[in-house]
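Worked example

This section walks through a single chain of length 257. The input is the sequence exactly as stored; nothing has been trimmed or padded.
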Amino acid sequence: MNDEHSSSVGSSDSAARWQALPAIDRRVAGVLVEKAKTVPDAYPMSLNAIRTATNQKSNRYPVMELEVEDIEESLERLRELGAAAEIQGGGRVSRYRHYMYEWLGVDKVELAVMAELLLRGPQTVGELRGRAARMEPIADVAALRPILQSLISKNLVLSLTPEGRGQIVTHNLYKPRELEKIRAEHSGGGQSHMAESEPRREATPVMQAASNPPASISGDTEMADRLNRLEQELAQVRQEVTELRQRFDMLGNMPRP
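Given that input, the structure is written out below as C-alpha cells.
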C-alpha cells in the first residue's frame, strides 16, 4: 500500500513534533492516514471525502456528525502544526494529505496502529491487531506487541490495563482532561468502552455464539478463541465492503481529465 511511501523512509529516526490534539483533529488525522493506506487511488483527499470518512459509522468511536466548516477548521489547525497540508491538484478541487510519519516519528506499521487508535480510542490488543492489519500486515497479537512497545517507548501509546489477555491500550494524543477521564474509566480493568457505548446492532449467529457461548463451550478456551476470531473476521469483512463502497464514491467524485 503506497501511502506516500517515500515519506516514511527514515521517519522513525526524525525528531517527532507531535502534541495533544482535540477530538476532531484526531479524527481528521486518522482518516487521512487510513484512506491513504486503504484507498490510495482517492488520496490526497478532497474536503467532502474527508467529511464523509470522518462521519462514517463503521470503525469510528465515537460516531461524529461534522460539517464542512468543522473539517476546514481542523485541517487549518493540522496545517499549522505541520501534520497535514493542502495540495493543489490538476482539477479545481483542493486536496489534502498528511505528514503523520514525520509528525509522529513512526514507521509504516506503527502509523497504521496509531491511525486505528486515533479513529477508535481505547481498545484491546486483539481488537487493535485485527483492525490495524487491514492497513499493514500484522500476523498476530505476538507480532503486534513489539510494535506497541516501540510506540510506548515514544510515549505515543499508553497501556490502560495490565498486560495479558484483554489488555486495553490507547494513544497519548488526548488533552489532559480527556486522558484523566479515560484512565478513570479503565482503572478497574473493565472492558473497552466501545463495547459498552457503541450503538446496538442485530447480532448474527456467530456474534451471539461468541458473546454467549453455551456452558459446554465456555470452559473451552480454544473454542472461545475460535469464535472470537470469527467475530473479528466478520467485522473486518463488513469494514472492507464499506471501504469499497466509499472508494467507488470517491472515484466518482474525482475531477475528470
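What to look for: The radius of gyration is 19 Å.
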